[in-house]
Automatic annotation (TrEMBL):
This is Exodeoxyribonuclease 7 small subunit. It is found in: Cytoplasm. It is an enzyme of class 3 (hydrolase). Signal peptide: none annotated. Keywords: Cytoplasm, Exonuclease, Hydrolase, Nuclease. Bidirectionally degrades single-stranded DNA into large acid-insoluble oligonucleotides, which are then degraded further into small acid-soluble oligonucleotides. GO terms for biological process: DNA catabolic process. GO terms for molecular function: exodeoxyribonuclease VII activity. InterPro entries: Exonuc_VII_S, Exonuc_VII_ssu_sf. HAMAP family: Exonuc_7_S. Its EC number is 3.1.11.6. PANTHER family: EXODEOXYRIBONUCLEASE 7 SMALL SUBUNIT. The lineage of its organism: Bacteria, Bacillati, Bacillota, Clostridia, Lachnospirales.
């Protein structure tokens, strides 16, 4: 099973993708591949952030540590 990528790793990868796309040196095909990879990373970030948000809501309501 593949290791889950952390938010920090996702953000770092996104920064590199953005830099590569902005420098204008990639072919259209390479740009499209990087764009798709960026979309996947963003979706992963959203999933992870949603989990954290739900855990914070649970903590806020109960005042207890609940699996974070």
């Amino acid at each position: 099973m593949a290791k889950a990528i952390t938010l920090e790793e996702s953000f770092g990868s996104l920064e590199k993708i953005i830099d590569n796309l902005e420098n204008g040196q990639l072919s259209l095909d390479e740009s499209f591949k990087m764009y798709n990879e960026g979309i996947k990373l963003i979706k992963n970030c959203n999933i992870q952030l949603d989990k954290v948000e739900k855990q914070i809501i649970i903590l806020d309501k109960s005042g207890e540590h609940d699996g974070i």
